[in-house]
Amino acid sequence: MAEPSIYVIEKVSPTLKVMYSVKNVVYSGETKHQKVDIVETEDYGLALLLDGLMQSSEIDENIYHECLVHPTLLAHPRPRRVLVVGGGEGSTIREVEKHNVVEEITMVDLDGELIELVKKYIPWSTKAFQDKRLKLYIKEGRSFLEEQPDNRYDVIIMDVTDPVKGGPAEKLYTLEFYQLAYRKLSEDGMIVTQASSISHTPSIFLSIVKTLSQVFPKTCYYGCYIKSFLSIWGFAVGSKNTLPVNLEADEVDRILKQRTINNLKFYSGEIHKAIFKLVDAYLKFYSGEAKIIRD
């Protein structure tokens, strides 16, 4: 086998870089907001890279998006109105759309050009943009949320990049943002956010959890291994009432059946229990200083 001629070198953390080969460049260009590469890789299949960083890949995007969406939507008793912030590739709304109790899906993303590229080149989520319950807005997420009425949403799902200093999502993880989200959530409202790498940037993960806990009376966290991220990836939930960590495996399977969700590739009642236990087990091996993230 010939040696690949193209490699991506990706910075996973301040002290770790990884390298993987690219078979074919499907698209490479820039939008107003970021550099976009859609490539075919040996290890991960078709993959979406933003600013040179892996965002989603064919082999495990289902694992990430099923874990992001379903635990919280199942824990909420009546998730009728759902807001997705970010999620430009469409996979997050695809998973939300599987819940027949959801009546209205609002998606707000900063980069409309990216969404058009996704529709053209990323096959696994193109149909998600055709759902009649979906309202799509091209706007910055925080300013959009500020304009919405209080108590508007039952669930808010944050699928944005990490809180990198100076990055586009930096102010979508702060105490002030979570206070805003709290006001916009209904009586039983819940927010779930991707929360960075537990294994490589535990201080960021723990800081997101700590910041959420300053605003929401109930919080929990969980994680799963994402091969294309080379990491145990974290998720954090803030709630006014119910939490997904309290759902038993048989309850998860019962609600999935009740909502006629039978096309999942990874998530189940058994997996649900495991992803909560997994994080506590791994955190014993990592140390990170948690701080409250402020504007």
Would you mind describing this structure in some detail?
With 295 residues, the protein is α/β, with parallel strands linked by helices. The chain is built from 8 helices and 12 strands. 44% of the residues are buried. It has 2 domains: 6-57, Spermidine Synthase, Chain: A, domain 2 (Roll); 61-283, 3-Layer(aba) Sandwich (Rossmann fold), CATH 3.40.50.150. Strands 8-7-6-9-10-12-11 form a 7-stranded mixed β-sheet, sandwiched between helices. It has a 5-stranded antiparallel β-sheet with strand order 1-2-3-4-5, with no helix packed on it. Helix 5 (175-184) packs across helix 6 (202-215) and helix 7 (249-258) packs across helix 8 (269-283). The longest helix is centred in the N-terminal third of the chain and has 15 residues, at 61-75. It starts with 5 loop residues before the first strand and ends in a 12-residue tail after the last helix. The chain has helices spanning 61-75, 91-96, 112-121, 141-146, 175-184, 202-215, 249-258, 269-283; strands at residues 6-13, 16-30, 35-41, 45-50, 53-57, 81-86, 104-109, 134-138, 153-159, 185-197, 218-226, 231-239. The mean pLDDT is 94.
